[in-house]
Amino acid sequence: MPGRTIxxxxxxxxxxxxxxxxxxxxxxxxxxxxxxxDTIFYYQNVSPPIKYSRFLSLSLQERNNILExxxxxxxxxxxxxxxxxxxxxxxxLLKQLKDNGISRFVGNLTNSYTRFFNTKxxxxxxxxxxxxxxxxxxxxxxxxHVSRYIHLNPYTAFIVKKLEDLENYPYSSFIEYTKDSTxxxxxxxxxxxxxxxxxxxxxxxxxxxxxQRTLDQIKHLISE
Length: 224
Known about the structure:
Strand content: 5-15%
Number of domains: 1
Distance between the termini: 27 Å
CATH topology: Alpha-Beta Plaits
Helix content: 40-55%
Strand order of the largest sheet: 2-3-1-4
Structural class: alpha+beta
Shape: globular
CATH superfamily: Transposase IS200-like
């Protein structure tokens, strides 16, 4: 696969997304989603000692030892700001920390997950559409709006029917932004620092929900 014409720049933030070939589902059941999430947080690290598939074959104690070492090292390719996994695509808002970090991270993620998906369903070949797409975040306003767009995806696509249920969608970082959490998976301050509190961010997201859903329904009429 050819490299990127424009390289991704370290210490910059990018909206990263890709979808299944011909918009086919890449996440079909709960196990698929959970495997993808676990793979994301494993390959965020610069130097995981073994492939994730091999990691899963270890004893619980051995796995915990590896995760504890990685936790102490805190040596990451990227910071994960927001994410959302949808049935046939994914969105990630990432800050690149190491040169070529995003490409390494997304490559490890999609290769590992594709092997899992194919083995589980006795198929072969790619499941995603070529190179992932990337959009550089150039302003703070853009950063906030992209985070909102990503978090609204399940509602926009009618996977979540009621807006108030958006916080219960388990394959998104939204709940981490609106409720107290003890996890450290996401770099949230860069977003939440622009709001008085979590409730204010939640309202910021909800205020655009119906417009975004309507726009998604008519986008085929207004784009080439």
